[in-house]
Amino acid sequence: MLKMNLMLKLTVINSIVVGLVIWIVGVSVKDFACYLIEKENSLSAEQRLAFTNQLDSYLVYAVILSIFIAAVVHFYFIRLLLYPLSTLTEAIKKIAKGNDPAIIYNKNSDEIGQLTRHFNEMIRKIKKVEDSREKMTQDVAHELRTPLTNINGYLEALRSGVISGNQELYDSLFEESMRLTSLVEQLQQLNIWENEYGSSVNYECLSIRLLIESQVEMFRLELQKQSIQIKVSVEDKQLNAEKEALKQVLTNLIENVLNYDKGGWMEIIGFMSEKGYQVQVKNEGLPIPVEDQNQPFERFYRADLSRNRNLGGSGLGLSIVKEIIKIHNGEVGLKTSQNVHTFWFMLPIENDRTFYG
Question: InterPro entries, from UniProt (predicted)?
Fold first, then answer.
């Protein structure tokens, strides 16, 4: 209805404008014709009056006919012009009702064509977000089902007296409980980085080498427990980034090594490249299938296809790494050769701004 109102308004306005132009031109032509006739004095007063009246009649008919033709022509072309807007309106109504609208095809390069292309891009992003949300819901349900089933099974057996409590059982229940807690905490962290920190980063000047060395020291005992030898070769550089965010990135990358290490060694390398500062974390771990080599930074991905929870974390650590580096306008990636994997992230040079004071 709003679309028709707009169409009719534009048609009426354009028709009135055309009518006014024709009327002004017609009156001017009529007056000029009367002037010429009076100048020649070839007609009597009655003939001049009849001539003037006839011109007035022709002018009225011409204006009415012109307005009608202008209205029809303008209505047709305005309808063609506004049809994409009508399609956009219907698509927006579908979105408001929670439905998925189809992609709108418009090959024009005008403003409406650009608007349509931006709308299509928005639709694709909305669908991607919805698909991601649906997949995340399924993954969360999948991740929670097994530990909850284990806990409920043990508790039911304890309640019915089938088994009696002992230290081993309590340790197992505690382990499942901590796994659930870790999963929830990492989901919360991922949500924070995706939403709360999406618009800005609290940059501060920091030494990347000192930051890496301090994070390695935090894991020194755990690395020794798992007999993992670590080598750190980092070119020092003063970078501007969110310190706690980079700590989280390094923590998750080191924990990834702890969860999947098979070679007993890891190496952390840091250096300046053409694009910015790059940090690599290399180790020997579980094989990653070729078709999955773009997946480790996706939510809930695990290298073991059986998704065995006795090995590996929640599958969210690298997703958090990806989000944090993305907020810093950086890049993440994986280079793998057989069982040797190199997870890397790069902070762009433009983040390296000079701080004063």
Answer: HAMP_dom, HATPase_C_sf, HATPase_dom, His_kinase_dom, HisK_dim/P_dom, HisK_dim/P_sf, HssS/ArlS-like, Sig_transdc_His_kin-like_C
Q: pLDDT of 153-162, one tens digit each?
A: 888 888 888 8
- Which run of H or E residues covers position 217? helix 208-218
**Does residue 227 lie within any of the structural domains?**
yes
Place of tokens 């095809």: 105
CB 113 within 8 A of CB 85: no
Q: Are residues 224 and 310 in the same domain?
A: yes
| Cα atoms found within 13 Å of the Cα of residue 236, Cβ hemisphere only | 5
User: Three-class SS string for 321-350?
Assistant: HHHHHHHCCCEEEEEEECCEEEEEEEEEHH
If one counts the domains in the chain, the total is 3
pLDDT of residue 285: 85
Mean pLDDT confidence for 245-273:
90
CA 98 – CA 96 distance, rounded (Å): 5
- Residue pair 334/342 in contact (Cβ under 8 Å)? The answer is yes
Residues 215, 250: Cα–Cα separation, whole Å = 7
Q: Which residue has the tokens 């905490």?
A: 185
pTM of the model as a whole: 0.58
Question: Do 143 and 30 sit in the same domain of this protein?
Answer: no
Q: What is the pLDDT of residues 168-189, one digit of tens each?
A: 888 878 877 887 887 777 777 7
- For 339, the token pair is 């069982």
